[in-house]
User: What shape does this take?
Amino acid sequence: MKGAFSAPGDYTYFKSQVPLHKIPIGTKQWRYYDFGPKVVPPLVCLPGTAGTADVYYKQIMSLSMKGYRVISVDIPRVWNHHEWIQVFEKFLDAIDVHHIHLYGTSLGGFLAQLFAQHRPRRVRSLILSNSFLDTRSFSAAMPWAPIVSWTPSFLLKRYVLTGIRDGPHEPFIADSVDFVVSQVETLSRDDLASRLTLTVDAASVGPLLLSDSFITIMDTNDYCAIPQQLKDELSERYPEARRASLKTGGDFPFLSRPDEVNLHLQLHLRRVGVEARPDLVPGVPKGGSGGSPSEENNGKEDPDDPPKDDGEHSEGPSADSQLHPAPESSESHSLDDQLLSNARDCHFVDEDMMVLFLTHVWEIFFLHFLPLYLGSLYITLNCRWKVRQVV
Assistant: This one.
């Protein structure tokens, strides 16, 4: 977290391709990204205390290219959990989204559970990463919570950053920390105060109507700001939920381990019945012909809007028909396909390496060993001829 921060190249590309939306709803300002085919029920990403909508840019780019719709939002300035539930529902109504799949990390996972508890008809599934069930431990660790709204910005930022483990990291984890720190610097005092208030405001997640089979718990096994006891309590609450353990990744695996996280997100969406639509992704060849996003959109606000069929709505009856989990084989097949693809790649690499190796072996033989062999053969034959003459 030291030294000047330089935005990663893939993030710069992301900003050039995916528009940032800012809309006022009531007294709240919403900042969010919405990318991918609109006919697909969206995966809505909720960040933690230190995160913004930008921290999920790797998920937006990867999953949208596979035909999924991803919405990543900033947590707005709300001061209690009841207000959060109300304003989030108004936000979904404003963007015309009815049924959602929620992916939340840390505080975002807690808010996702609360929304699923109080608005069960709207939440189709949950992916929870390094999250928790109640706020008691955070409230006890922050006795100055009553005055958080009057605390200066630099103290709030320092408090948030102290929750991020400092010290030597492997490169990818260090880069993820640097990126999140740069995002914290963009947050205002009210933004930070609001999020810290949500973290310590007395609340706990009650029973969910959502079946455990529609929940995936994705945690890192090395370290994170959420105590292990709280993560264990969440796992015990949903005993039949799917487990996706990441060996490493730190506090922000969606940045440090994006390939693994994206794979687990994709497996989850397939398992709960979300059908990707890669045929609606701009720029992807369809029927043997491709096209540029600019040609396909013709001035639309979102470059990812698919062509609209007559009478087709962004959330049609197909969303309701995808409530039941896909057969168990879908997950195993996807893993098998990935392993088979990796094996094929390795096989091709091995063949290329073998050809190069054999080429070098022949070169070494002809240039070095063949002259030596011929020389030694000449000396041997010459000696035998001299011996015969003497005899």
Notes: Residues 328-391 form one domain. DSSP finds 14 helices and eight strands in the chain. The mean pLDDT is 80.
